[in-house]
Amino acid sequence: xxxxxxxxxxxxxxxxxxxxxxxxxxxxxxxxxxxxxxxxxxxxxxxxxxxxxxxxxxxxxxxxxxxxxxxxxxxxxxxxxxxxxxxxxxxxxxxxxxxxxxxxxxxxxxxxxxxxxxxxxxxxxxxxxxxxxxxxxxxxxxxxxxxxxxxxxxxxxxxxxxxxxxxxxxxxxxxxxxxxxxxxxxxxxxxxxxxxxxxxxxxxxxxxxxxxxxxxxxxxxxxxxxxxxxxxxxxxxxxxxxxxxxxxxxxxxxx
Length: 255
Prior knowledge:
Elements: H1 6-29, H2 34-51, H3 55-60, H4 62-117, H5 123-130, H6 143-153, H7 156-166, H8 190-194, H9 208-223, H10 227-236, H11 247-254
């Protein structure tokens, strides 16, 4: 049995990568619309053809086989990544539009409910609340004789009540400065004082959802790297067998 050389082993690994990239690209193409799916299927077919090499050609030209397989695998992976990124952007835009539509519908429903219940103030009510109240008419000299007649006919108790009713209604009231307000020496509200303080030592400032999002950030950063960059990172970390892994397998290895 002939011994496999180093170049042949490298060529075999490149062929396996090309076959895996072709399979992944074909799976993704099934979820895409017509034109983009055709482009991705063409890249998958090219990678599959580069991976289909006879043993004779592998032994005779291992370097050529390796170069062709690597080039086809990289092209298939790049096409797959761009297609997935495009679909993710479209999905995000659709989600934003749906959220905006739901928000508008919720506001319209709330406005209709308030209008039906009669809580929406009318224009007349707005004007009545904004216009100042008319001042009471001041006592003129023509009211003097009428007041004298009232004093002659009314009893002393009734006279006091009449004078109180004639007094102007716009007497100065307590201003904003006279209104009682919370001072520095006031005791705090017992309910507020007894309420337990939130536990900030255990959880983060944004809750468990933010902690989970923070844990997913390295995997998201790895998704943005190319296969070559992932292999360099695996090589720098001392990982073994990284040259035969696809991008998804490299991400699982590094994460």
